[in-house]
Amino acid sequence: MKRIVLCMLVVLTAISVSGCNYHNEIKNLQLIYATSLDLNDKNEIVTTVTIQSPGGKERSAPTHEVISASGATMEESLYQKIGVQLTGPVATSKNQVMLISDKLARQDMAALLDATFRSSAVHMLSMVAIVQGKASDLIRLSDSGRRRQENT
Predict the structure, then answer these.
(1) How many structural domains are present in the chain?
(2) For 97-115, how does the pLDDT look when each residue is reduced to its tens digit (9 = 90+)?
(3) 54 domain residue, yes or no
């Protein structure tokens, strides 16, 4: 009898402990749809993102927000500086395009892309483009919402 109870306890423990317990509800995430990367005068990476937030009322159009921040790495500017400005966790899984300025691309493109696509949260089908001039200018072209910008 003790053996059966022990076996059942082991099986129940194995079932309850296994699996993925980490999840975020999509309504709580700040979904990034486009990213641009530039270099500023201090040789820091300036990350600009477009975030789409659902409309406030039923059937209202979603709003787009463009946010910029700079840091020594893209991870610092995106997750530490931009993430602090937002109301929920940053999610890059819906990122559709990444624009990189030609000035930044000349430095260390391999390390930049490696750090970006190594994350399991990044959508692997994101299109990457190198643009002349400031990549953030292209992100801001369709900016119809509010802007929050750190002094860069």
Answers:
(1) 1
(2) 889 999 998 887 877 777 6
(3) yes
